[in-house]
From TrEMBL:
This is Putative SSS family transporter. Belongs to the sodium:solute symporter (SSF) (TC 2.A.21) family. One of its GO terms (molecular function) is symporter activity. GO terms for biological process: sodium ion transport. Gene3D superfamilies: Sodium/glucose cotransporter. It is found in: Cell membrane.
């Protein structure tokens, strides 16, 4: 395996992070604006927005996780990971258009929930995003530390510190603007590198002969493109997980609020294609490693991609690969820092502490930058645990499933109340955890009950996907048919897949409870109030949240 010297690795890192820092210096403003720091004035164009959306969704962790899926489940693994992830980006845009219509100048989804419901709903969404972004930040630092440790004399902890400080260096200066503009440059390099490096590794490893000679290394399920194990352990849980990521993730919402409203659809369609092609392509390296019978270094599947690159790429292409992965993880890590700073600036200080009318924009900027520093330190500490990236992604996505229906319903249905939102999410989480971690015996009646609820969750997931494009009637038909058709096959065995069933239970419980608590409400919310209660922090003429919503 090729390894870089200290001088080479330092030169590559200085060139990459120095270049991104220079870009952030050129776009920085002497008199920084808090709203621009968070959403870039709500007027980003198509090219920058599409590139930023794609680069944010294509993170180093998604590349590593796709390869892990290919190594674990065979050729269908990267398809399940990349295809469903790509389709979820596509499913975001109709909901995104509705969100921007009712809140054209918001900064965070939690801010909108405060305007729509009140404090508890806001804190739930903000809290879940803080946890999710910290885990995402940690997993990207983890990926960077593993890469640097494998390809250089530096150890894992030193690699984590280098990546963390490099990302913080340029993001701290201009916040969200630095994130989206560096995303554009990073994505161009990333796509070019993938187009060259993945085919090169395949042919250097003996493709296509390796797929014939190495077929004996696969189990029957790994060799089956339509593997039920791959679908129930990877594909189906990821469908549910990424829908939750799409709706609840502040890094996505931030780009939704930043892009010009008329460009939402083409931006997300372009990101769908870019993400799917890139992540599936890189994930095939895991399939190749499986056919070649390669054992992950130190038994850690997170090492697969850098291990394959170091084994089959010559020095110059390995340097390109190194910069590609560093760019991928940095493009998402800076998005997480921007998201965390926006949440603390808007939802903690701007709403809970100072109040919308009294918030000081300059103090908000200081708070946002301090948040980035604290978040970086916390993520470095968490990265030292070296947890499985794939497990983290699926777990967080499943956990967010409890929020999906209450959040979407709050943008369309005026009867949803703060109490219904809060109670439905808490009850769903209480149901999710014991199923996901098998805290109670899943055989017997409890397993059957879990399966029945999970079947309702199947209808909810497919119904929500349909609703965004085709409206309520079609969604109800699709959801109902999904429940009826899946019940005979799913009840009795679905609890054998705790990741999938836990996620579906969260969807089902939150939907049923939220609907039951809202359907008989006589008062309906006036969505025009959200426009008045959210917006630039320079505007003091905002009605109080307690004003009538009738």
């Amino acid at each position: 395996m090729v390894q870089f010297s200290t001088l080479v690795i330092v030169s590559l890192l200085v060139a990459f992070y120095g270049g991104t820092f220079l870009i952030s210096l050129r776009i920085g403003k002497k008199q920084e604006n808090a709203d621009g720091f968070m959403t870039a004035g709500n007027k980003l164009g198509f090219g920058v927005s599409a590139a930023s959306m794609t680069a944010t969704w294509i993170w180093a962790s998604s590349m590593y996780a796709s390869a892990t899926s290919g190594y674990t489940y065979g050729i269908s693994g990267p398809i399940h990971y990349g295809l469903w992830g790509a389709l979820m980006i596509l499913f975001i845009y109709p909901f995104g258009q509705r969100i921007r219509k009712v809140a054209p100048k918001a900064h965070t989804l939690a801010e909108v929930m405060y305007a729509r419901h009140g404090r508890s709903s806001q804190l739930m969404l903000a809290g879940s995003n803080i946890v999710g972004s910290l885990i995402s930040l940690m997993s990207n630092f983890l990926a960077g530390g593993l890469l640097i440790a494998l390809l250089s004399p530096f150890n894992f902890i030193q690699g984590v510190f280098i990546v963390a400080l490099g990302v913080l260096l340029y993001t701290l200066w201009s916040g969200f603007r630095a994130s989206v503009l560096t995303d554009f440059v990073q994505l161009i390099g990333m796509l070019g590198a993938v187009a060259v490096l993945v085919p090169f590794i395949f042919f250097a490893a003996g493709f296509p002969a390796a797929f014939e000679s190495g077929a004996g290394n696969l189990t029957a399920e790994q060799g089956n493109f339509f593997s039920s194990v791959a679908f129930f352990e990877q594909g189906a849980p990821y469908i549910a997980a990424v829908l939750a990521y799409a709706i609840g993730n502040q890094t996505i919402a931030q780009r939704l609020f930043a892009v010009r409203e008329d460009l939402i659809k083409p931006t997300f369609i372009t990101a769908t294609v870019g993400y799917g092609a890139t992540v599936i392509g890189v994930g095939m390296l895991g399939v190749l490693a499986l056919y070649l019978g390669i054992e992950p270094m130190d038994g850690d599947v997170n090492n697969l991609i850098p291990q394959m690159a170091a084994s089959y790429l010559p020095g110059i292409l390995l340097a390109v690969f190194f910069v590609m992965i560093i760019g991928a993880l940095s493009s998402t890590a800076d998005s997480d820092l921007a998201a965390l700073s926006s949440i603390v600036m808007t939802d903690v200080y701007g709403q809970a502490v100072a109040g919308k009318a009294n918030a000081n924009p300059r103090r908000m900027l200081l708070i946002g930058r301090v948040t980035m520093i604290v978040a970086t330190a916390a993520a470095i500490s968490l990265a030292s645990l070296q947890l499985s990236i794939l497990d983290l992604l699926v777990f967080v996505g499943a956990l967010w499933g409890a929020l999906v229906f209450p959040v979407i319903a709050s943008f369309y249905w005026g009867k949803v109340t703060n109490k219904a939102f809060t109670v439905s999410v808490l009850v769903a989480l209480a149901a999710f955890l014991p199923v996901r971690f098998s805290w109670v015996p899943m055989d017997g009646m409890f397993g059957i009950l879990s399966d029945i609820v999970a079947v309702v969750g199947i209808g909810v997931v497919l119904g929500l996907m349909t609703f965004g494009f085709f409206g309520l009637k079609v969604a109800q038909i699709v959801g109902g048919l999904a429940i009826v058709l899946s019940a005979p096959f799913a009840i009795g065995f679905l609890h054998d897949y705790p990741t999938l069933s836990g996620s579906l239970v969260a969807y089902a419980v939150s939907t049923v409870v939220c609907f039951a608590m809202s359907v008989n409400q006589r008062e309906t919310f006036d969505f025009e109030l959200i426009k008045q209660r959210t917006g630039d922090f320079d505007d003091d003429e905002l009605p109080a949240v307690g004003a009538s919503g009738k």
